[in-house]
């Protein structure tokens, strides 16, 4: 297997994980587990953004490294609209609040918004990766 094929498989694995996280997020939202839904929505975005960064040879592993590199290489360059950067940041903040600040209640509405935005992010990533020949 050549280097490009290895990279393509890694990107594909990240995108499969992103889709799985969306499914788990929806399931948790439907069952009223809104904090867990937000957590899984975040990881859907994180995995999709990681796949994008691998595609451009700028992989990162830490959460803030991924969001920063995504903003640098995809938003500031105009490849992606600013709205995706804003929703990524909001979902990250909501995930941190849900996971580490139990006094902040995650509502059905917040979880639904994060789920919808995560689904849009993953769909946009899939489209971009297909257009670039990675999927």
Tally of helical runs: 5
Please identify which CATH superfamily we are dealing with.
Nucleotidyltransferases  domain 2
Which residues sit in consecutive blocks of at least 5 with pLDDT less than 50?
A: none
The profile of the biggest β sheet is: none
CATH topology annotation: Four Helix Bundle (Hemerythrin (Met), subunit A)
Explained architecture:
The protein has 135 residues and is an all-alpha fold. It has a single domain, classed as Nucleotidyltransferases  domain 2 (Four Helix Bundle (Hemerythrin (Met), subunit A)). The chain has 5 helices and no strands. It has helices at residues 3-30, 34-55, 63-75, 82-100, 108-131. α4 crosses α5. The relative contact order is 0.19.
Give a short synopsis of this structure.
By secondary structure, the chain is mainly α.
Descriptive labels:
globular; 135 residues; mainly alpha
Strand-helix topology:
Blueprint lengths: L2 H28 L3 H22 L7 H13 L6 H19 L7 H24 L4
Helix pairs in contact: 1-2, 1-5, 2-3, 2-4, 2-5, 3-4, 4-5
